[in-house]
Amino acid sequence: MDKNLYRRFDFPETGINLYESKHLRGKFVAEHYHDHFQILYALEGEGEITLDGKAYNFSKDKVVLITPNCVHSIKATTKMTVLVLAFSVPLLNITLQNELLTLIQKSARHFELDLYTASEIRPLIRKMLYEQKNGDLFGKLSMPVYLIEIIIHLLRQQNFSFVQDANDIRSIQMKEYIERHYFNNITAESLSAVFGISTRYMNDIFKRKFNDTPCNISRK
């Protein structure tokens, strides 16, 4: 592939552009690359994505982080809708911390979101779509903030791969959810719905990890 042949992306002042990409069944986007970052979020449908020659399943609630110069392609096996979050670090109105940049620049990667992480990222994407459409000063200031939060959620889930017990991962995420939504009226039913498990099972695994129930912790 001739890496001299590619189209440079023109970013708005925020350094961030968010848009939906529709793919009909059988559509193939040939190998290409660009000089900016992209986060691709599969909203619906099913397909395959390659990152530097390695193929991954790409379907609903799966995410990829594409680094500059990563050669990638997409094939849709069904009708697909992909949310594209493109960003250029030099153009961002705020500076990403060096530690965060170091973490995301290492390589492209594939994420399969759990229910909790997906529930945290979707509202941030909706906020970004609103702010991008609104286009005022506050939108320009908030877009990079939401972007950083999305990246942190992705990297944090990746770190959970080092935890062997799936129930421990769920329990840690539940505790984090309670702490992040401290002022919300969290019930056992609403919390179990976020994580897609029964309230009884939720209480059992949480108590085994933290010697207490989620609702008791939320009231403290």
Can you walk me through this structure?
It is globular, with a radius of gyration of 19 Å. The model has no long low-confidence stretch (mean pLDDT 85). The chain contains seven helices and nine strands; from the N terminus they run ββββββββαβαααααα. It has a five-stranded antiparallel sheet with strand order 1-8-3-6-9, covered by helices on one side. Strand 4 (46-51) and strand 5 form a beta hairpin. Helix 4 (166-180) packs across helix 6 (199-210). The protein is an alpha+beta fold.
List keywords for this structure.
single chain; 220 residues; alpha+beta; five-stranded antiparallel sheet; four-stranded antiparallel sheet
Radius of gyration: 19 Å
Written as H for each helix and E for each strand, in order along the chain, the element string is: EEEEEEEEHEHHHHHH
State the share of residues found in helices, binned by percent.
40-55%
N-to-C span: 58 Å
State which percent range the strand residues make up.
25-35%
Strand count, sense and closure of the main sheet? 5 strands, antiparallel
Q: How many separate helices?
A: 7
How are the strands ordered across the major sheet? 1-8-3-6-9
Shape: globular
Q: Got a strand count?
A: 9
Please tell me the overall pLDDT: 85
Quickly give the structural class.
alpha+beta
Low-confidence stretches: none
